[in-house]
């Protein structure tokens, strides 16, 4: 057995120790990057931590990455905070990967780790001038890939011209594969989430969901779409864990027939099931449901599961039943009914049509229904009518809310249902339309919306509408690069008013305060009441912070003036806190919190004034 030779000198021993130490450091770096990738919740978090680790661990001055996804290039970077590398970083952010000449493009072409000893001496380098300006000397670039797919590149740059350590190329090949594998997994997960979201949306629109029965265990697996279709709350625990629980909710007339179909599947007499049945929903109302499923076997030919879709067709069946009754009920129906020819011209209407629209059978006959009732409102464009027509021809039925015009010129909302009548050759011969005037229903919806979004005492927007308005305003301001001011107002000396004169006087005072606040700002600004004596104003598109201060001063003066409530003369004041978007926050809750903090600073400063939020205000 050959024994390893002993070191012949101290120099050999030191070299071996240095080599071992470098190897340990490389392994430690690889493990640290692997840990970052394992714990990362997003690509952004992972790339930030990976670049920081690479830069700080190996002594690079700048670490940056370019990631490719669907023709988009995302740029990430870490830079030594003690160095000025702005010129080189700016040039890097503008790299065009459709062109050659820069180090990342060369690494992509080579498909391997690329080392450039002196970037300033590289002929034709696109960032040569920027490298010279910031004294960037060498760069190392490695490709992020998994299999044959390339997900990006990472470039490490240094102002020192030292060569990389021995073994670094192999380390960065391994890191490139590890990071590439992580990026593939994250991008696949993102694509899968989008696909699942689109599928869930389609199921919600179609009122359908997944249905899967395991015969061996009797278990039933359903998703949120099925729960909605059957009338259950999607948020609750599965109320139908077994087939028996599902069958127990079927009508007696359907139960035996449904079980017989599944028995045929188990006996291999059929492989597909289509069963329309009545299902008793949790609120006691029956739903008409269609189950379409197929049997699936394992590799031994044994029945493994029955998989399909459940769809709620209650409304569709109800509409079809109405159509079958039209011939007998058209004259007595409360709903407006209209029969059209294949071109959409009115053939016949019932008395309810005349009552709702004002047009008699003679006046409406021969006219296109959309030209007579719907297009004149100006609420629907050609795209809408083409979409409805396309759906009608494809599905045979369409139902929805539309705007219509009465003979007297009044516009009103209607719930319109249109169905197609075809001959034996599947040619369209007629359309049957049924509609109701839903003005009362829409007004009720408006009243409910008023209750949900507006303060019942003052009529001002409440906290919910304030948050919604502020978020929309921030989106607009970000796009237009405009400033927003949020003013948080709290009345001074209001509690003694309630204690002295009673809550009825206090309520009347709050109404007058709301009026003065409205009068103090522009019509485009929002004045809202959070509750009690707290009000919030949102000023969009202000030119400067001084403008907001002028408004705050105006509010303080307005509220500081005397109020007359009944026989009482009342004097109160207000304190105002101000926060600005985007300087003080990019989220609605942050702006509101900081405006509130500034408000309390104003109160501590003596009340009846205003303060602008500053970091020192935060509590």
TrEMBL record:
One Pfam family linked to the record: GAF_2
PAC domain: residues covered: 273-325, 398-450
Domain GGDEF stretches: 482-615
GO molecular function ontology, one term from the record: catalytic activity
Location of the PAS domain: 322-374
Entries under PANTHER family matching the protein: DIGUANYLATE CYCLASE DGCT-RELATED (PTHR46663), SLL0267 PROTEIN (PTHR46663:SF3)
Name of the protein in its database record: Diguanylate cyclase
